[in-house]
Specification:
This protein is α/β, with parallel strands linked by helices and 316 residues long. It is built from ten helices and ten strands. The protein has helices at residues 30-42, 65-77, 102-116, 135-147, 161-174, 197-204, 236-261, 265-274, 289-300, 305-315, and strands at 5-6, 13-14, 18-20, 47-49, 84-89, 121-126, 151-157, 181-183, 208-209, 283-284.
Length: 316
């Protein structure tokens, strides 16, 4: 079994794969969601990532569907002590305003706790930066949640290096808690948003990193290899640009590693991420037990230095 990894400077230790909750209550109904969650925990998974805004983009949904589904599963399975729950505030407007307004943070946290049916959120993310709110004011709002026992640790998602650093400086200056975890977009075909200054900052300051879009919306599973494949799903339209860019080279390198290891392309994509400097665990979602069992294979897949180098070079 692979050892759990410490998430940055937090006291949280997680398996090197996080289950994405965006699909629960959307493309995975109750039965499918419960089956996926059961299989993830049975396979050694430890953290589930969701957000209050999942899945407000679906006609008829208002946000909170994913949290409610996870809450129902926690209640019926009795597995609250077996998992860590990460959720987010900042994209779903509502009581208290929008984004990172202090009153919004307070109200959104209470709403998330209620939907999840838990007393404490293990990791609470600012889902996006908010230039309209002073960083010390947002952090002070988060500090109140920590002091009240409603939140254990803080993270930031979609923050640039400059803003992550200025948030850290504000926390030091005002004696407030820090963002100890970052959730950026990062995968074999989308590396510019993390590599460089942001990655260096996280490594230097022991900020744990849990990247999303680890499979590039399914592209890195090998599902889209020609223009004929683009009609396979609602996401197909985005894949044409990847195929015309470095995508084909990356898939070819992944195919070679798959031939060496017998691993699936999804496992290879996630294992590459988990091996990158500063990364604690990639996030990936699944809508079936078969998919989640495939993803879990990434936890024990160790790629050689040569394999990692070849994959990196293909997408450089």
């Amino acid at each position: 079994m692979t050892t759990n990894r410490r998430l940055g400077a937090t006291d949280l230790h997680i398996a090197p794969l996080v289950l994405g909750g965006n699909v629960f209550g959307w493309t995975a109904d109750r039965d499918a969601s419960f089956a996926v969650l059961d299989a993830f925990v049975a396979g050694g998974g430890t953290m589930i990532d969701t957000a209050d805004v999942y899945s407000a983009w679906v006609p008829g949904h208002q946000g909170g569907e994913s949290e409610s589904m996870i809450g129902d599963w926690l209640k019926s399975s009795g597995k609250r002590n077996d998992v860590l729950i990460a959720t987010k505030v900042g994209m779903l407007p509502g009581e208290g305003g929008e984004k990172l307004a202090p009153a919004r943070i307070a109200a959104a946290c209470d709403a998330s706790l209620k939907r999840l049916g838990v007393e404490t959120i293990d990791l609470y993310f600012a889902h996006q930066d908010d230039d309209a709110v002073a960083q010390e004011d947002a952090l002070a709002a988060f500090a109140k949640l920590i002091d009240a026992g409603k939140v254990r640790a803080l993270g930031a998602s979609n923050f640039h290096a400059r803003r992550l650093k200025s948030a850290h400086d504000a926390a030091v200056a005002h004696g407030l808690p820090h963002y100890q975890v970052l959730q950026p977009e990062y995968n074999l075909v989308s590396r510019h948003k993390f590599e460089g200054e942001l990655q260096d900052y996280c490594i230097t300051n022991n900020v744990g990193v849990v990247p999303y879009y680890g499979l590039a919306s399914g592209f890195l599973t090998g599902k889209y290899r020609s223009k004929d494949d683009l009609g396979q799903s609602v996401r197909g339209g985005r894949m044409g640009d990847l195929l015309e860019g470095k995508g084909a080279d990356v898939l070819a390198a992944m195919d070679a590693v798959a031939a060496d290891t017998g691993a699936s392309l999804a496992q290879i994509a996630l294992a590459w991420l988990a091996a990158q400097p500063g990364v604690t665990a990639p996030i990936a979602s699944a809508t079936s037990v078969k998919q989640v069992e495939d993803l879990l294979g990434a936890i024990t897949l160790e790629l050689s230095a040569d394999q990692l180098d070849r994959l990196s070079a293909a997408g450089a």
